[in-house]
Write a structure and sequence with these properties.
With about 200 residues, this protein is mostly helical. It contains 7 helices and no strands.
Length: about 200
């Protein structure tokens, strides 16, 4: 277990902490959730940077980096649907895409091929993280901002929420597009006849 892989895997339990904080009402909980989320998002870049710089890139790291991203996004999306921040239809599209792409990766891995994220997939992930950042930032302003400064920021909070929804819609469109690219590019590998039952 090298350092980049440890950073990658740390994002999985961190998701549970962030989601738990989303349901807390004590002062500072929303800010802590936002800060930890930003830390997880930064870790997504930092683990890859360290791996490339130190020559520690592994197939395990490539697979788990993508899986950790999916787990983080899916966990937060489910929580935001429960809190009525994200429409369930958009969430279902996101979940279906992630499961389909994961299935493609699993079949490819069974044949000794590692399917890594392409530029469209990375753009999709960044867009989703930006959207989730807006959604987590809204309660930070409304709850902790009120506790600290005692000012009504409802209009600003509404603006942040709308920006989050717009970004999430964009991320959903990119999810469908990048998912189509993954499947079409690897269709021969996944569905090709190599003597195995797929």
């Amino acid at each position: 277990m090298n350092l980049p892989n440890a950073i990658t895997l740390s994002r999985i339990p961190l998701m549970f902490v962030v989601v738990g904080l989303m349901y807390c009402a004590w002062p500072g909980s929303a800010t802590l959730a936002f800060v930890l989320f930003i830390g997880a998002a930064a870790g997504d870049w930092y683990d890859g940077h360290i791996a490339r710089k130190r020559g520690l890139v592994t197939n395990f790291g490539k697979l788990m980096d993508a899986m950790a991203d999916k787990i983080m996004v899916i966990g937060l999306v489910i929580a935001l649907v429960d809190k009525h921040e994200i429409p369930v239809g958009l969430a279902l599209i996101t979940l279906c895409r992630e499961f389909l792409v994961t299935g493609v990766r699993m079949v490819a891995a069974s044949k000794g091929v590692v399917v890594v994220a392409d530029s469209a997939g990375k753009t999709k992930t960044v867009t989703q993280l930006i959207a989730l950042g807006f959604f987590l930032g809204a309660p930070m302003v409304s709850q902790d901002g009120y506790y600290l400064f005692h000012w009504d920021a409802s209009s600003f909070v509404g603006f942040i929420g709308r920006m989050g929804l717009v970004a999430f819609v964009a991320g959903t469109v990119l999810s469908v597009w990048s998912g189509y690219r993954y499947i079409s590019r690897n269709a021969r590998l996944v569905f090709g006849d190599d003597g195995r039952d797929l």
